[in-house]
Amino acid sequence: MHWYNTKEGFEQINTLGQNRTPFLFIISYDKTKIFAQPLEALDSDIFYKLQDWRNYPVKKREKPFIFSKSPVDFPTYKKAMEQILEEIRSGNTYLLNLTFQTPIKSDLSLKEIFTYARAKFKLYFKDEFICFSPEMFVETEGNTIATYPMKGTIDADLPDAKESILSDEKEMAEHVMIVDLMRNDLGIVGSNVKVEKFRYIESIKAGSKELLQVSSKITAALPENWRDELGTMLEKILPAGSITGTPKRSTVEIIEKVENYERGFYTGVFGIFDGESLRSGVMIRFIEKEGHTLVYKSGGGITIDSDAKSEYEELMDKVYLPL
User: Fold this and answer.
1) pLDDT tens-digit profile of 156-169?
2) What residue ranges are annotated as transmembrane (predicted)?
Protein backbone atom coordinates (compact mmCIF):
# COMPACT_ATOMS: atom_id res chain seq x y z
CA MET A 1 0.00 0.00 0.00
CA HIS A 2 1.44 3.34 -1.06
CA TRP A 3 0.42 6.94 -0.45
CA TYR A 4 1.45 9.36 -3.16
CA ASN A 5 2.15 13.05 -2.64
CA THR A 6 0.24 15.65 -4.64
CA LYS A 7 2.40 15.58 -7.79
CA GLU A 8 2.91 11.79 -7.85
CA GLY A 9 -0.73 11.09 -7.06
CA PHE A 10 -2.32 13.10 -9.83
CA GLU A 11 0.31 11.80 -12.29
CA GLN A 12 -0.58 8.24 -11.28
CA ILE A 13 -4.28 8.97 -11.83
CA ASN A 14 -3.43 10.41 -15.25
CA THR A 15 -1.45 7.26 -16.13
CA LEU A 16 -4.23 4.89 -15.03
CA GLY A 17 -6.76 6.97 -16.97
CA GLN A 18 -4.60 6.98 -20.11
CA ASN A 19 -4.33 3.18 -19.91
CA ARG A 20 -8.10 2.91 -19.27
CA THR A 21 -7.29 0.87 -16.16
CA PRO A 22 -10.20 0.54 -13.70
CA PHE A 23 -9.02 1.89 -10.33
CA LEU A 24 -10.00 3.31 -6.95
CA PHE A 25 -8.69 6.67 -5.82
CA ILE A 26 -8.77 8.44 -2.45
CA ILE A 27 -7.68 12.08 -2.14
CA SER A 28 -7.25 13.92 1.17
CA TYR A 29 -8.90 17.30 1.74
CA ASP A 30 -5.62 19.20 1.21
CA LYS A 31 -4.56 16.94 -1.72
CA THR A 32 -1.26 16.01 0.00
CA LYS A 33 -2.07 12.27 0.37
CA ILE A 34 -3.40 10.33 -2.60
CA PHE A 35 -4.17 6.64 -3.00
CA ALA A 36 -4.71 5.20 -6.49
CA GLN A 37 -4.77 1.45 -7.06
CA PRO A 38 -6.08 -0.74 -9.91
CA LEU A 39 -9.23 -2.62 -8.94
CA GLU A 40 -7.74 -5.93 -9.98
CA ALA A 41 -4.95 -5.43 -7.40
CA LEU A 42 -7.02 -3.66 -4.72
CA ASP A 43 -5.95 -4.46 -1.16
CA SER A 44 -8.28 -6.95 0.52
CA ASP A 45 -9.07 -4.60 3.43
CA ILE A 46 -10.48 -1.76 1.31
CA PHE A 47 -14.21 -1.77 0.55
CA TYR A 48 -16.30 0.71 -1.40
CA LYS A 49 -19.79 1.51 -2.54
CA LEU A 50 -20.63 4.19 -5.08
CA GLN A 51 -24.36 3.82 -5.64
CA ASP A 52 -24.60 0.40 -7.36
CA TRP A 53 -20.82 -0.09 -7.71
CA ARG A 54 -19.58 -2.12 -4.74
CA ASN A 55 -17.04 -4.80 -3.82
CA TYR A 56 -18.62 -6.34 -0.70
CA PRO A 57 -21.83 -8.26 0.06
CA VAL A 58 -24.90 -6.59 1.55
CA LYS A 59 -25.43 -7.52 5.17
CA LYS A 60 -28.20 -6.32 7.50
CA ARG A 61 -27.69 -5.50 11.15
CA GLU A 62 -29.28 -8.15 13.37
CA LYS A 63 -28.54 -6.81 16.86
CA PRO A 64 -29.03 -3.52 18.70
CA PHE A 65 -26.03 -1.24 19.11
CA ILE A 66 -24.69 1.36 21.50
CA PHE A 67 -23.81 4.86 20.27
CA SER A 68 -22.89 7.98 22.23
CA LYS A 69 -21.17 11.25 21.37
CA SER A 70 -19.19 13.89 23.27
CA PRO A 71 -19.56 17.01 21.13
CA VAL A 72 -17.69 20.29 21.37
CA ASP A 73 -19.39 22.65 23.83
CA PHE A 74 -21.52 25.50 22.55
CA PRO A 75 -19.25 28.37 23.76
CA THR A 76 -16.31 26.87 21.83
CA TYR A 77 -18.43 26.49 18.72
CA LYS A 78 -19.82 30.02 19.05
CA LYS A 79 -16.32 31.49 19.41
CA ALA A 80 -15.19 29.84 16.16
CA MET A 81 -18.35 31.00 14.40
CA GLU A 82 -17.77 34.58 15.56
CA GLN A 83 -14.32 34.48 13.97
CA ILE A 84 -15.92 33.43 10.70
CA LEU A 85 -18.59 36.13 10.89
CA GLU A 86 -15.85 38.72 11.36
CA GLU A 87 -14.14 37.38 8.21
CA ILE A 88 -17.47 37.64 6.36
CA ARG A 89 -17.95 41.24 7.54
CA SER A 90 -14.44 41.98 6.26
CA GLY A 91 -15.33 40.58 2.82
CA ASN A 92 -12.86 37.70 2.97
CA THR A 93 -15.51 34.98 2.62
CA TYR A 94 -19.25 34.79 1.99
CA LEU A 95 -19.82 31.18 2.92
CA LEU A 96 -17.55 28.89 4.95
CA ASN A 97 -18.06 25.27 5.94
CA LEU A 98 -17.09 25.09 9.63
CA THR A 99 -16.32 21.59 10.95
CA PHE A 100 -15.44 20.01 14.30
CA GLN A 101 -14.34 16.67 15.71
CA THR A 102 -16.68 14.72 18.01
CA PRO A 103 -15.37 11.74 20.01
CA ILE A 104 -17.91 8.89 19.84
CA LYS A 105 -18.36 5.48 21.42
CA SER A 106 -19.99 2.37 19.99
CA ASP A 107 -19.90 -1.36 20.57
CA LEU A 108 -19.72 -1.81 16.80
CA SER A 109 -16.40 -2.01 14.96
CA LEU A 110 -15.58 0.33 12.08
CA LYS A 111 -16.10 -2.59 9.71
CA GLU A 112 -19.55 -3.30 11.17
CA ILE A 113 -20.60 0.35 11.00
CA PHE A 114 -19.46 0.50 7.38
CA THR A 115 -21.23 -2.73 6.43
CA TYR A 116 -24.56 -1.83 8.03
CA ALA A 117 -24.64 1.87 7.15
CA ARG A 118 -27.22 2.97 4.60
CA ALA A 119 -25.67 5.52 2.25
CA LYS A 120 -25.07 6.09 -1.46
CA PHE A 121 -21.30 6.46 -1.11
CA LYS A 122 -19.31 4.39 1.38
CA LEU A 123 -15.65 3.67 1.96
CA TYR A 124 -13.83 1.41 4.44
CA PHE A 125 -10.09 1.86 4.55
CA LYS A 126 -7.99 -0.69 6.45
CA ASP A 127 -9.73 -0.22 9.82
CA GLU A 128 -8.41 3.35 9.84
CA PHE A 129 -11.42 5.33 8.66
CA ILE A 130 -14.84 5.00 7.07
CA CYS A 131 -17.35 7.31 5.46
CA PHE A 132 -21.01 6.84 4.63
CA SER A 133 -21.75 9.86 2.52
CA PRO A 134 -24.96 11.06 0.86
CA GLU A 135 -23.06 13.43 -1.45
CA MET A 136 -21.68 12.76 -4.90
CA PHE A 137 -18.66 14.81 -5.96
CA VAL A 138 -18.61 14.37 -9.75
CA GLU A 139 -19.66 11.70 -12.21
CA THR A 140 -19.28 11.34 -15.94
CA GLU A 141 -21.49 9.91 -18.65
CA GLY A 142 -19.84 9.93 -22.06
CA ASN A 143 -18.15 13.33 -22.26
CA THR A 144 -20.53 15.02 -19.81
CA ILE A 145 -19.49 15.76 -16.21
CA ALA A 146 -22.09 16.36 -13.50
CA THR A 147 -21.95 17.48 -9.88
CA TYR A 148 -24.71 17.59 -7.27
CA PRO A 149 -23.85 20.05 -4.49
CA MET A 150 -25.76 19.56 -1.24
CA LYS A 151 -26.37 22.57 0.95
CA GLY A 152 -29.22 22.90 3.42
CA THR A 153 -30.39 20.37 6.03
CA ILE A 154 -33.52 20.18 8.17
CA ASP A 155 -35.17 17.64 10.47
CA ALA A 156 -37.93 16.03 8.43
CA ASP A 157 -40.17 15.79 11.51
CA LEU A 158 -40.44 19.56 11.90
CA PRO A 159 -43.77 21.06 10.78
CA ASP A 160 -43.79 21.83 7.04
CA ALA A 161 -40.09 20.91 6.90
CA LYS A 162 -39.81 20.84 3.10
CA GLU A 163 -41.57 24.18 2.61
CA SER A 164 -39.63 25.67 5.51
CA ILE A 165 -36.16 24.91 4.17
CA LEU A 166 -37.00 25.79 0.56
CA SER A 167 -38.36 29.20 1.64
CA ASP A 168 -35.59 29.96 4.17
CA GLU A 169 -33.68 32.99 2.87
CA LYS A 170 -30.42 32.06 4.63
CA GLU A 171 -30.54 28.52 3.21
CA MET A 172 -31.39 29.86 -0.24
CA ALA A 173 -28.46 32.30 -0.19
CA GLU A 174 -26.08 29.55 0.97
CA HIS A 175 -27.24 27.15 -1.73
CA VAL A 176 -27.05 29.76 -4.50
CA MET A 177 -23.44 30.56 -3.53
CA ILE A 178 -22.41 26.90 -3.68
CA VAL A 179 -24.18 26.35 -7.01
CA ASP A 180 -22.37 29.40 -8.40
CA LEU A 181 -19.03 28.11 -7.08
CA MET A 182 -19.56 24.64 -8.57
CA ARG A 183 -20.62 26.16 -11.91
CA ASN A 184 -17.33 28.03 -11.94
CA ASP A 185 -15.39 24.86 -11.00
CA LEU A 186 -16.94 22.82 -13.81
CA GLY A 187 -16.23 25.73 -16.15
CA ILE A 188 -12.51 25.27 -15.42
CA VAL A 189 -12.53 21.76 -16.93
CA GLY A 190 -15.52 21.86 -19.28
CA SER A 191 -17.77 24.04 -21.42
CA ASN A 192 -21.50 24.69 -21.85
CA VAL A 193 -22.12 24.64 -18.08
CA LYS A 194 -25.80 24.21 -17.13
CA VAL A 195 -27.79 24.08 -13.89
CA GLU A 196 -30.15 21.26 -14.88
CA LYS A 197 -32.04 20.94 -11.58
CA PHE A 198 -32.10 23.64 -8.91
CA ARG A 199 -32.83 22.99 -5.21
CA TYR A 200 -34.55 19.63 -5.08
CA ILE A 201 -35.12 17.67 -1.86
CA GLU A 202 -33.56 14.34 -0.89
CA SER A 203 -34.42 12.33 2.22
CA ILE A 204 -31.61 10.84 4.34
CA LYS A 205 -31.85 8.52 7.34
CA ALA A 206 -29.81 9.91 10.24
CA GLY A 207 -30.00 7.28 12.95
CA SER A 208 -33.47 7.57 14.46
CA LYS A 209 -34.08 10.81 12.58
CA GLU A 210 -34.89 11.57 8.99
CA LEU A 211 -33.16 14.60 7.46
CA LEU A 212 -34.12 16.51 4.35
CA GLN A 213 -31.20 17.84 2.30
CA VAL A 214 -31.31 20.29 -0.59
CA SER A 215 -29.34 19.52 -3.76
CA SER A 216 -28.88 20.85 -7.29
CA LYS A 217 -27.56 19.24 -10.49
CA ILE A 218 -24.93 21.01 -12.61
CA THR A 219 -23.42 19.64 -15.85
CA ALA A 220 -20.70 20.59 -18.34
CA ALA A 221 -19.24 19.17 -21.57
CA LEU A 222 -15.73 17.72 -21.26
CA PRO A 223 -13.10 17.58 -24.03
CA GLU A 224 -12.81 14.26 -25.88
CA ASN A 225 -9.49 13.42 -24.18
CA TRP A 226 -10.60 13.95 -20.59
CA ARG A 227 -9.76 10.36 -19.61
CA ASP A 228 -6.11 11.02 -20.50
CA GLU A 229 -6.03 14.01 -18.14
CA LEU A 230 -8.19 12.62 -15.32
CA GLY A 231 -5.76 13.48 -12.51
CA THR A 232 -5.17 16.98 -13.88
CA MET A 233 -8.94 17.52 -14.08
CA LEU A 234 -9.52 16.40 -10.49
CA GLU A 235 -6.69 18.56 -9.18
CA LYS A 236 -8.21 21.65 -10.79
CA ILE A 237 -11.61 21.24 -9.11
CA LEU A 238 -10.50 20.08 -5.65
CA PRO A 239 -11.17 20.60 -2.81
CA ALA A 240 -14.92 20.24 -3.27
CA GLY A 241 -16.69 23.60 -3.09
CA SER A 242 -19.55 22.28 -0.98
CA ILE A 243 -17.21 21.58 1.96
CA THR A 244 -15.04 24.69 1.69
CA GLY A 245 -17.04 27.75 0.73
CA THR A 246 -16.71 30.79 -1.48
CA PRO A 247 -14.51 32.35 -2.70
CA LYS A 248 -12.62 29.07 -2.45
CA ARG A 249 -9.00 30.17 -2.06
CA SER A 250 -9.44 32.73 0.74
CA THR A 251 -12.06 30.54 2.45
CA VAL A 252 -9.66 27.58 2.60
CA GLU A 253 -7.08 29.87 4.25
CA ILE A 254 -9.63 30.95 6.89
CA ILE A 255 -10.58 27.31 7.56
CA GLU A 256 -6.91 26.57 8.31
CA LYS A 257 -6.85 29.40 10.86
CA VAL A 258 -10.19 28.74 12.57
CA GLU A 259 -10.47 24.94 12.74
CA ASN A 260 -8.35 23.48 15.51
CA TYR A 261 -7.51 20.14 13.87
CA GLU A 262 -6.43 18.55 10.61
CA ARG A 263 -9.30 17.42 8.41
CA GLY A 264 -7.13 14.73 6.83
CA PHE A 265 -9.31 12.58 4.58
CA TYR A 266 -12.52 14.05 5.96
CA THR A 267 -14.07 16.26 3.22
CA GLY A 268 -11.67 14.76 0.69
CA VAL A 269 -13.04 12.63 -2.14
CA PHE A 270 -12.91 9.02 -3.28
CA GLY A 271 -14.04 7.42 -6.47
CA ILE A 272 -13.86 4.74 -9.12
CA PHE A 273 -12.84 5.02 -12.77
CA ASP A 274 -14.15 1.88 -14.49
CA GLY A 275 -12.12 2.37 -17.68
CA GLU A 276 -14.83 4.48 -19.28
CA SER A 277 -16.74 6.47 -16.65
CA LEU A 278 -15.94 8.20 -13.37
CA ARG A 279 -18.02 8.16 -10.21
CA SER A 280 -16.95 9.85 -6.97
CA GLY A 281 -18.23 10.91 -3.55
CA VAL A 282 -17.38 13.61 -1.01
CA MET A 283 -16.07 12.07 2.22
CA ILE A 284 -18.55 13.49 4.70
CA ARG A 285 -20.28 11.48 7.48
CA PHE A 286 -16.80 10.38 8.44
CA ILE A 287 -15.34 8.35 11.34
CA GLU A 288 -11.67 7.63 11.96
CA LYS A 289 -9.55 5.97 14.61
CA GLU A 290 -7.22 8.11 16.70
CA GLY A 291 -5.43 5.60 18.91
CA HIS A 292 -8.21 3.74 20.72
CA THR A 293 -10.74 6.55 20.21
CA LEU A 294 -13.30 6.88 17.42
CA VAL A 295 -13.66 10.43 16.13
CA TYR A 296 -16.58 11.66 14.05
CA LYS A 297 -16.08 14.78 11.93
CA SER A 298 -19.00 16.97 10.85
CA GLY A 299 -19.87 20.53 9.95
CA GLY A 300 -22.12 23.00 8.18
CA GLY A 301 -22.10 26.18 6.14
CA ILE A 302 -21.85 29.59 7.83
CA THR A 303 -23.12 32.82 6.22
CA ILE A 304 -23.74 36.31 7.57
CA ASP A 305 -27.32 35.27 8.45
CA SER A 306 -26.34 32.13 10.39
CA ASP A 307 -27.70 31.62 13.90
CA ALA A 308 -25.15 30.03 16.24
CA LYS A 309 -27.64 27.83 18.09
CA SER A 310 -29.26 26.36 14.99
CA GLU A 311 -25.88 25.82 13.29
CA TYR A 312 -24.62 24.04 16.41
CA GLU A 313 -27.70 21.82 16.42
CA GLU A 314 -27.13 20.98 12.74
CA LEU A 315 -23.56 19.99 13.55
CA MET A 316 -24.88 17.63 16.24
CA ASP A 317 -27.62 16.22 13.98
CA LYS A 318 -24.94 15.14 11.50
CA VAL A 319 -23.18 12.97 14.11
CA TYR A 320 -25.10 9.72 13.70
CA LEU A 321 -24.96 6.15 12.48
CA PRO A 322 -27.44 5.45 9.65
CA LEU A 323 -28.02 1.86 10.69
Assistant:
1) 888 888 888 888 88
2) none
